[in-house]
């Protein structure tokens, strides 16, 4: 029975009958293929074809699955064969690592050998190779530490000393034996061409070509993984690129460059040989990975440019070399479409026939953005899609360095992992620069200058971080803004010795920012304050999330101070959710904070159209604070909001009493913004009470008072309320008032009140016989109120509204807000 089963699974005549039973012809078994690969790999090593040899060793090792012959009985013969095979495998691992080391991929060899010594720590050959790989990576101290590690291990566990080979290599490392240095590793020979397609950098390639034609020194600068080396290699074509990543000692720089460009000096002077070679051949000099040798590379470049007048130099580095006349070409993230194209190409390389669906394309865009659209990160992610899928990989990126894994052999980078590539940049920073970088990782969506300037290291460290591509500067707007790529943030978080304290410090910065801004949201600087807070929205969210867990009273205070920001940004639901969470998390908060939070939440409910809840919450706030003598200013604000939420359809008596009391307290406390605001609320209350002429006069006075005090927002709202009293009367002043109010709200960045103006503008145009203009404004309002939750038809002095205006689903493709503004402000449209 067993023989018949074997015949079904074995090819041809592999199983033959013999007088003693059956014989298996083993030429095509895994064992024989393994041995064949080893023979071929060792022949390739003898022929100095180390890259091919490494691949042959890897092919041999890929045949292994578990313990050989584990189903056979443990007799003496089987045990001996099994032990021999295991030893051959261990030797193949070591020989494969040695071949990889001989290719010049020192970082890859280090990573492989660390795994091997962990698996079998008593095999000294592995430690010897690890020490050599570390030394050739420029990590002399780590190389010596590797020898110390195995010496301690052998002494403590076996009571023996390292063998002569390990002791010998230790001595050579201590003596910095020149023979230990890798030969020729600095050169990218004409055969060292990338195997993958070049995607997304065509414009940069063309620009580099133009710049080299105009400038004698061009340095391609950018963060780790941005593709600087690949761009330089593509530009150089078949010419040599001097790879400096493995030149650890500045003293070897000239020799490495001379060797890379095949310059030899009969008198033994590599510098003169290099100059002669560059003069004779007239080729550009391409120096890759200069950052760790920036000073020495800069001096060499200056000397060579002086000695060889026709020379052009292209360098790649994390930052400029700092040479007079140098022109930098910043290389940032790929464009969004190019990043998706790169991901798609690399995924198809590993999954032939894969075609992305619409949902995949959206997820690919999300994945690319999450990885900062850095080519190296995208390449690694594409290889992991096979395991996790696109969406699954996005969910794993909190641990991106582990998930993305090792960099494949044959890529242009000299590092073994993305984390190692980032660490290379980080290790070159000074202590102050590292401290600042670690301090900045909690900032979401970037940070302003003052966030970095407040650090002990100061502005000098920030300038250096920008120069070295650790921080990106965005200087196109009115003020500079700074940002860390998510990959760099993740690395800084991973090396932060106290991430909890760093996160807490960021939360304190957010609190202080909001505390300073709160008073300006109703004042002269309201427009610039709104713009600044809008930029910091990701930081506001992060700080509030931290405080909700760690300092709920602070979260309550901050969320309440942001009331007008929530309203004017149209973030009503988010503001109310945050306030509700903070109130629940801080049940024992001081009275003033609870009252202010309830008043803020009530105002948010008002703008969503829930006036019942708004009035109830403000009544609770008034009852809580009304008898407290130490809260006069807060009482004035509560009464002001009480007056506002009676508009429309509320109790005129409450509106009149509340606005008059608030105005009196504001005048008593000389609170400028509140004096103007309560005058406006008082005027609206008079209109509600039927005293329309008095109300209009007080509203006009509120506009004048606000303008005199530079209170643009209060003037705009007063004009809107005044216009509301005129729309139904078809007064010709209504539309000019709405135009002026809209322009002010546009300047202030107040979406809620922009929609309120457009709603009233639609009423005005409809009453004036312009149904097309009214319909356009109505569609825009309907779309935005459905998306944001704002209900502009239910705020302030509501006019009579035609039936069914905002019923049903909003238009799926409405006119834009700009279209609505253009219609309302068109001079030809008049009531």
Explain what the structure shows.
The chain has 831 residues and is mainly α. 63% of the residues lie in helices and 5% in strands. Among the domains are: 31-174, Serine Threonine Protein Phosphatase 5, Tetratricopeptide repeat; 187-330, Rossmann fold; 336-419; 429-497, Orthogonal Bundle (Arc Repressor Mutant, subunit A); 716-831, no CATH class. The strands form three sheets. The chain has a six-stranded mixed β-sheet with strand order 3-5-6-7-4-8, sandwiched between helices. The protein has a three-stranded antiparallel β-sheet with strand order 9-11-10. A two-stranded antiparallel ribbon has the order 1-2. It starts with a helix and ends in a 6-residue tail after the last helix. 45% of the residues are buried.
In short:
With 831 residues, this protein is mainly alpha-helical. It has 40 helices and 11 strands.
Residue fraction in strands: under 5%
* Residue runs with pLDDT of under 50 for 5 or more positions: 183-191
For CATH, the homologous superfamily of the domain at 31-174 is named as Tetratricopeptide repeat domain
Average pLDDT level: 83
What's the main sheet like? Answer: 6 strands, mixed
CATH class of the domain at 31-174: Mainly Alpha
What is the SS-derived class? mainly alpha
Q: Radius of gyration from the CA trace?
A: 36 Å
Helix content: 55-70%
> Helix segment count?
40
CATH architecture grouping of the domain at 31-174 = Alpha Horseshoe
What characteristic shape results from the CA principal axes?
Answer: elongated
DSSP, total strands: 11
CATH topology name of the domain at 31-174: Serine Threonine Protein Phosphatase 5, Tetratricopeptide repeat
End-to-end distance, in Å? 101 Å
Strand order of the largest sheet: 3-5-6-7-4-8
InterPro entries: BTAD, HTH_77, P-loop_NTPase, TPR-like_helical_dom_sf
Domain Bacterial transcriptional activator: 29-174
Protein name: Transcriptional regulator
């Amino acid at each position: 029975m067993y023989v018949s089963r074997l015949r079904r699974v074995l090819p041809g005549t592999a199983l033959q009958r013999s007088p003693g039973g059956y014989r298996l012809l083993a030429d095509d078994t895994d064992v024989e293929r393994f041995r064949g690969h080893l023979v071929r790999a060792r022949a390739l090593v003898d022929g100095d074809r180390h890259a091919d040899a490494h691949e042959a060793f890897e092919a041999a090792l890929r045949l292994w699955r578990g313990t050989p012959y584990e189903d056979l009985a443990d007799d003496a013969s089987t045990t001996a064969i099994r032990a021999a095979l295991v030893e051959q495998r261990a030797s193949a691992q070591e020989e494969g690592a040695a071949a990889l080391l001989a290719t010049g991929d020192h970082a890859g060899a280090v990573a492989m050998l660390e795994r091997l010594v962990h698996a079998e720590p008593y095999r000294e050959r592995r430690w010897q190779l690890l020490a050599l790989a570390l030394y050739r990576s420029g990590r002399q101290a780590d190389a010596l530490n590797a020898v110390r590690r195995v010496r301690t291990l052998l002494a403590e566990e076996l009571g023996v000393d390292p063998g002569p080979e390990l002791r010998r290599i230790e001595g050579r490392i201590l003596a910095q034996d020149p023979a230990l240095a890798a030969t020729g590793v600095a050169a990218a020979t004409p055969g060292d061409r990338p195997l993958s397609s070049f995607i997304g950098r065509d414009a940069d390639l063309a620009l580099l070509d133009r710049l080299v034609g105009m400038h004698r020194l061009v340095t391609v600068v950018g963060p780790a993984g941005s593709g600087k080396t690949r761009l330089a290699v593509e530009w150089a074509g078949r010419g040599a690129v001097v790879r400096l990543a493995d030149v650890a000692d500045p003293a070897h720089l000239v020799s490495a460059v001379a060797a890379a460009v095949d310059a030899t000096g009969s008198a033994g002077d590599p510098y003169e040989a290099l100059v002669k070679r560059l003069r004779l051949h007239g080729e550009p000099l391409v120096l890759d990975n200069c950052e760790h040798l920036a000073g020495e590379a800069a001096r060499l470049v200056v000397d060579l440019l002086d000695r060889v007048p026709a020379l052009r130099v292209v360098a790649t580095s994390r930052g400029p070399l700092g040479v007079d006349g140098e022109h930098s070409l910043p290389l940032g993230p790929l464009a969004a479409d190019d990043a998706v194209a790169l991901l798609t190409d690399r995924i198809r390389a590993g999954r032939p026939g894969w075609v992305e669906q619409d949902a995949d394309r959206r997820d690919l865009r999300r994945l690319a953005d999450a990885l900062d659209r850095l080519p190296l990160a995208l390449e690694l992610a594409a290889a992991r899609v096979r395991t996790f899928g696109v969406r699954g990989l996005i969910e794993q990126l909190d641990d991106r360095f582990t998930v993305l894994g090792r960099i494949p052999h044959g890529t242009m980078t000299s590092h073994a992992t993305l984390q190692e590539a980032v660490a290379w940049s980080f290790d070159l920073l000074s202590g102050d620069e590292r401290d600042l970088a670690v301090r900045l990782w909690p900032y979401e969506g970037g940070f302003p200058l003052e966030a970095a300037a407040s650090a002990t290291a100061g502005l000098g460290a920030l300038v250096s971080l920008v120069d070295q591509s650790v921080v990106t500067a965005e200087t196109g707007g009115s003020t500079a803004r700074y940002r860390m790529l998510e990959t760099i943030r993740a690395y800084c978080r991973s090396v932060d010795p106290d991430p909890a304290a760093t996160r807490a410090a960021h939360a304190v910065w957010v609190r202080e920012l909001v505390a300073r801004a709160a008073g300006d949201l109703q004042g002269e600087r309201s427009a610039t304050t709104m713009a600044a807070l809008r930029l910091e929205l990701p930081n506001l969210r992060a700080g509030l999330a931290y405080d909700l867990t760690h300092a709920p009273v602070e979260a309550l205070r901050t969320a309440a101070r942001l009331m007008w920001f929530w309203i004017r940004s149209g973030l009503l639901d988010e503001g109310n959710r945050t306030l509700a969470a903070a109130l629940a998390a801080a049940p024992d908060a001081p009275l003033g904070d609870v009252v202010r939070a309830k008043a803020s939440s009530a105002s948010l409910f008002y703008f969503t159209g829930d006036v019942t809840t708004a009035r109830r919450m403000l009544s609770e706030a008034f009852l809580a604070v009304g008898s407290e003598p130490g809260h006069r200013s807060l009482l004035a604000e509560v009464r002001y909001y009480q007056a506002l939420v009676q508009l429309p359809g509320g109790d005129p008596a409450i509106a009149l009493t509340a606005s008059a009391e608030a105005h009196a307290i504001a005048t008593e406390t000389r609170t400028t913004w509140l004096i103007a605001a309560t005058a406006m609320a008082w005027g609206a209350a008079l209109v509600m009470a039927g005293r329309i002429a008095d109300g209009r006069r007080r509203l006009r006075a509120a506009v004048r008072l606000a303008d005199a005090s530079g209170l643009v927002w209060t003037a705009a709202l007063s004009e809107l309320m005044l216009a509301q009293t005129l729309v139904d009367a078809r007064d010709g002043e209504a539309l000019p008032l709405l135009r002026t109010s809209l322009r002010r709200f546009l300047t202030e960045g107040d979406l809620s009140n922009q929609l309120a103006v457009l709603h009233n503008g639609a009423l005005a145009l409809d009453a004036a016989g312009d149904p097309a203009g009214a319909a356009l404004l109505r569609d825009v309002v309907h779309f935005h109120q459905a998306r944001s939750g704002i209900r502009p038809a239910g705020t302030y002095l509501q006019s009579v509204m035609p039936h069914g205006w905002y019923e049903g689903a909003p238009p799926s493709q409405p006119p834009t807000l700009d279209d609505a503004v253009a219609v309302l402000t068109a001079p030809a449209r008049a009531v």
